[in-house]
Specification:
heterodimer, A: 691 residues, mainly alpha, MetI-like fold, 3 domains, globular, B: 365 residues, alpha/beta, Rossmann fold, CBS domain Like, four-stranded antiparallel β-sheet, 15 helices, 21% strand, disordered N terminus
Chain lengths: 691, 365
């Protein structure tokens, strides 16, 4: 074991030397810095040509589908718009009550009233109508595929990677594809939303059907079930809870995609409202509209998850069963009564414009006041973050230190001192802890000095592929090499590094802050109780909305994007850390206590090492959340791949956008597989398993 | 042995209901390669099992043969991994045997089509599972009536039928509860009731009480014996608990490494274990409660008079005080009233001495 470790350390040292050598050679060899233009493989052009062919030859087919799909959307939309808000609100509240009880019903009622009074009811109903059509489609499609994958290993082998791709390629990249095939209109939102929301249903269907205990299946067989009976009367009902969890996730995904898809416009829904208000820099209005989305998301989430958890706990409650039996009657009766009432009292049918109440103006004013009065402070936060963290990571200390930024010129002796001190720190780490920590320190020192975007691409490809090989085995190493190779030969490596740079800073900050908060929450029930609803809210919030407060204060730019990513990606870091620390085996903790561990020793020498695999999964999710938010953050002006994707969408350049989107997906998948493998290695070292 | 006929269970007839014939179950890449014919009959089963194991295949059942008579409780006992669960699943074809035959009323279950198999399960077999295997989404009565529902019987009829078995297992008043609202013992009562709802002829129980607390387990064993005394099913009962096997078995088989080591009445296994493996199980058995008067009776010639009489199946622990007071012993009579022999204190002491594992003390002259 020792010997093999040392072997790895030497390999790493060799790679560091190669990297330094390449950096030294950089001024003399051009292609080390930027991949030669004439060698770029024009995938984007090919894709565009393919697309043109498809549109000219099969366009009629897609247009036909589009025409067919328009009808149900129009139908639901007309119904939801025609019904008085009182009736729709009543029905939604009734569903909330059945799903979860009084509390949720009151929350739902408040949310509905907010939408009505603030004047966004009709936009909300447009959004809801798209969700209402897309969710059943996604569920049926997802369940069907799930059943197929459950029954056939081969089908599963095809379906699973497809789901990975659909969930990691940014939506902006395939929105254009849909737009070109199916034409402008609400259908684009519908199809995008179905494509994005059926994968969780597939996954939950497979898991649910598989997890039915063997004895339940056997007892079904022994009861004399035919294959069909066994499936529909034993397997499906036994996995109902997991299936409904899939419905919950699919619904949430559908809503968030409907919102994102409104970026192409023409939908007159609430997402479009938020976007256009942001574009007009009317932050009060955009925040109010954003809140509508957040409320919708929360209500839909609580209702569907309420239904899911209810289905797991079978109880013989006479009362609620009675209610459920009569719910249809109550719905019809109450609906008609309220309809009549709304016809008598016009305010209850359509809330008049002049009665709308919007605090947007005063919000805008107080925001202006805030920004004017605290301009210095805001500017300072921005400057410090920019000059001392973001710029060095991007172009390196050697590029960013100047009298204008740091107050002094970078001298040779500065660099020498930096190099020596980093080597010393590395040596101490190697001596005190673990040679791999030393390697990590050295690599970090090199990145930070030369800058991620200034590093020669061959050495970065080498470092990432080698790390992937060491952590996840040969296959992951080769996969990483070819994945990164794809990014290089398509000529978008510089943008890719800009994405990686922004995302890495955000992920590192999120993880450190989040793990800290998680440790705190694991030790204190009060903190935990405060953090939980905040996390819940952030997690259910459509990504768009998270941008709003940051844009309001810090305007457009990378720093705003950074903050928005952190705000979203911190959630899994907190969650997993707390979960990992709170769910350790009690025997070990008691044993450590009996050995006389102090609180600090307990945390650092016992709890954290044992919780590390779970925390790693938290890191994995932090990265995934970070990348998801990064894509949306393109709206506030970033420069990486996500921006290429976004520009591809707005310019109608399908090929460029899709290639950049695929590159982002590749980066996400590499990060995902590496952190997963890392967590697995730790789990097998500790002989535990984390679910 | 003279005593065997005398103590045979009055309920169990000599008609064979279910019969396992040379059943093999092999797991691995290509299990069929080891068998030329499907009937599983081989000259040297042990040698074949060894060679299969050496060929990267797993032998779950090796040449298992036994008969279950009408009304008999046949217990299969073994440690975990001995293949006892596999064999009961081979009988019900939840697991498809690699070779051999399963005869139910003389017909090979393994040759039945899928539709016929479903029919057999619907009408002739009932099975009880270790962790109950209840449908979580159905309440007690729906669970019990589930097999009837699958047969397409109308709601009214199946609930009437279910009500009857609910009474049999003592679950009245619990009909509308869901499984997660019941204790383990109650859940297994539901499992038992469900398996009996279709009035099966063969009743398979796979470690039915192993998941229960010891006290509940004992009570459920009593319940089970009571139910059996009413219904008189042909039973295969799997357990890893020798004490449980003793309590319920008419006859039992001990399994190891997928093969049957010994078959017989519990008392035969105790008195004549074939090897150390079987002896290991029987060592801690309290002999005085297992042995009956017939087992210690000494045969006599001619008529017996002047001493008390006792039934052949009287356990000897209940005779100890009588024998202490009456040096002449007691006459043991069979069910038909004929005398099997006389049991004296000395016979009992000798029998107990055989069963005790203690080293004899050195007695000075």
């Amino acid at each position: 074991m020792e010997g093999r470790l040392d072997h790895g350390v030497y390999q790493w040292l060799a790679i560091i030397l190669i990297t330094l050598g390449l950096i030294a050679a950089q001024p003399h060899i051009d292609w080390l810095t930027s991949y030669p233009k004439n060698l770029i493989v024009p995938f984007a052009d090919w894709l565009n040509a393919m697309m043109d062919w498809l549109v000219t030859h099969l366009g009629w087919l897609f247009m036909g589908v589009s025409w067919l799909l328009e009808w149900p959307i129009k139908g639901v939309r007309i119904i939801l718009q025609a019904l008085p808000w009182l009736v729709t609100g009543f029905l939604i509240c009734l569903v909330a009550f059945i799903a979860s009880g009084w509390k949720l019903m009151l929350f739902t009622l408040a949310s509905c009233l907010y939408m009505v009074i603030i004047g966004y009811w009709s936009e909300s109903m447009n959004t809801l109508s798209l969700v209402a059509i897309s969710v059943p489609m996604a569920i049926l499609f997802g369940f069907g595929l799930g059943v197929w994958a459950f029954n056939s290993r081969q089908a599963e082998r095809v379906i699973m990677p497809m789901l990975d791709i659909l969930q990691t390629v940014p939506a902006f990249a395939y929105l254009l594809l849909i737009l070109m095939l199916f034409g402008f209109g609400t259908v684009v939102g519908l199809i995008a939303s179905v494509l994005y929301s059926f994968p969780p249903m597939v996954r939950n269907t497979i898991v649910g059907l598989r997890r039915v205990p063997a004895e339940v299946i056997e007892s079904g067989l022994m009861s004399g079930a035919t294959a069909r009976q066994l499936f529909w009367q034993v397997r499906v009902p036994s996995s109902k809870r997991q299936l409904l969890l899939g419905v919950n996730q699919a619904t949430m995904a559908s809503l968030s995609m409907v919102i994102i898809a409104s970026i192409i416009g023409g939908t007159a829904d609430i997402g479009w409202e938020v976007l256009s208000q942001i574009r007009k820099a009317q932050f009060g209005e955009s925040l109010l509209a954003g809140l509508v989305i957040a409320l919708m998301a929360m209500v839909i989430d609580r209702v569907t998850s309420g239904l899911a958890s209810q289905s797991g706990e079978y109880e013989n409650r006479k009362g609620s069963q009675k209610l459920r039996q009569h719910s249809l009657m109550i719905a019809v009766g109450g609906g008609l009564a309220f309809y009549a009432l709304a016809k008598l009292v016009p305010v209850l049918e359509v809330w008049p414009r002049e009665m709308e109440f919007s605090p947007a103006r005063s919000m805008n004013e107080s925001l202006t006041y805030l920004i004017v009065n605290f301009r210095k402070e805001i500017e300072m936060i921005k400057t410090v973050a920019f000059f001392f963290v973001m710029l060095p990571t991007k172009i390196g200390l050697q590029g960013s230190i100047s009298p204008f930024t740091w107050g002094f010129e970078l001298q040779t002796w500065h660099s020498l001192a930096y190099a020596t001190s980093m080597t010393v720190i590395g040596a101490i780490c190697a001596y005190r802890f673990n040679p791999y920590i030393a390697i990590f320190v050295l690599l970090f020192a090199i990145f930070f000095y030369f800058g991620l975007t200034k590093m020669p691409w061959p050495s970065l490809v080498l470092i990432y592929s080698f790390a992937a090989w060491r952590v996840g085995g040969l296959r992951l190493g080769i996969g990483t090499f070819f994945g990164l190779g794809f990014i290089v030969v398509t000529g978008i490596w510089p943008e890719a590094m800009l994405s990686v740079y922004l995302c890495s800073i955000a992920v590192i900050i999120s993880f450190i802050l989040g793990a800290g908060l998680g440790i705190w929450a694991a030790g204190s029930d009060t903190v935990s109780a405060i953090l939980r609803p905040i996390n819940d809210t952030l997690q259910t919030m459509p990504l768009f909305v998270i941008l709003i407060p940051f844009v309001m204060i810090f305007k457009i730019g990378e720093f705003t994007a950074l903050l928005a990513i952190i705000a979203y990606a911190i959630v899994p870091a907190i969650r997993y850390t707390e979960h990992g620390l709170r769910n350790l085996s009690e025997g070990v903790i008691e044993a450590a206590e009996m050995m006389g561990c102090t609180k600090r020793q307990m945390l650092w020498s016992v709890k954290i090492p044992l919780a590390l695999p779970v925390m790693m999964l938290g890191l994995n999710q932090t990265i995934m959340y970070g990348i998801a938010m990064l894509v949306i953050a393109a709206l506030v002006g970033t420069n990486g791949l996500e921006q290429v994707v976004y520009i591809g969408l707005s310019d109608g350049n399908f090929g460029v956008g899709l290639i950049a989107g695929m590159a982002l997906a590749i980066i996400a998948m590499i990060a995902d597989r590496m952190t997963q493998a890392w967590s697995r290695n730790r789990q097998s070292d500790l002989d535990i398993s984390v679910t | 042995m003279t005593s065997e006929a005398a103590v045979s269970n009055a309920a169990a007839s000599t008609k064979v209901k279910l019969s396992c014939r040379n059943v093999w179950k092999i797991y691995g890449e290509n299990p069929a390669q080891f068998f030329d014919a499907g009937n599983g009959v081989v000259d040297t089963p042990q040698a074949l099992a060894d060679s299969i194991a050496n060929n990267d295949h797993i032998v779950a059942n090796a040449d298992v043969s036994f008969d279950v008579h009408v009304g008999e409780i046949f217990v299969i006992m073994g440690l975990s991994g001995s293949g006892k669960s596999t064999i009961v699943r081979c009988i019900s074809r939840l697991v498809e045997p690699t070779a051999g035959a399963i005869l139910l009323d003389g017909e090979d279950v393994l040759k039945k089509s899928d539709a016929e198999l479903i029919d057999i399960r619907r009408h002739k077999m009932g099975m009880v599972f270790q962790s109950f295997g209840l449908m979580p989404h159905l309440n007690v009565i729906e669970n019990i009536a589930f097999p009837l529902k699958l047969q397409g019987i109308g709601e009214q009829d199946r609930y009437t039928q279910a009500e009857r078995v609910i009474e049999l297992v003592g679950l009245q008043g619990r009909e509308s509860n869901f499984p997660n609202e019941l204790s383990g013992g109650q859940q297994q009562r539901v499992g038992i009731a469900r398996s009996l709802a279709v009035e099966p002829e063969v009743w398979l129980l796979d470690e039915p009480f192993s998941a229960l607390d010891p006290l509940i387990r004992k009570r459920m064993q009593d319940e089970f014996l009571r139910i059996q005394s009413v219904l008189n099913k042909s039973i295969v009962f799997i357990t890893h608990d020798f004490q449980e096997a003793l309590r319920v078995a008419d006859r039992m088989a001990i399994m190891r490494d997928g093969a049957i080591v010994q078959i017989g009445r519990p008392v035969d296994l105790i008195l004549n274990p074939v090897d150390d493996y079987v002896r290991e199980f029987t060592r801690d058995v309290p002999w005085e409660s297992v042995l009956s008067a017939a087992d210690v009776a000494e045969a006599v010639d001619g008529p017996v008079s002047g001493i008390g009489r006792i039934a052949a199946d009287t356990p000897i622990d209940s005779l100890l005080s009588y024998l202490g007071d009456n040096a002449d012993g007691v006459a043991v009579e069979a069910a038909d009233g004929s005398i099997i022999g006389i049991a004296r204190a000395a016979n009992v002491v000798k029998a107990l001495a055989t069963g005790s594992g203690a080293t004899p003390a050195v007695v000075r002259k």
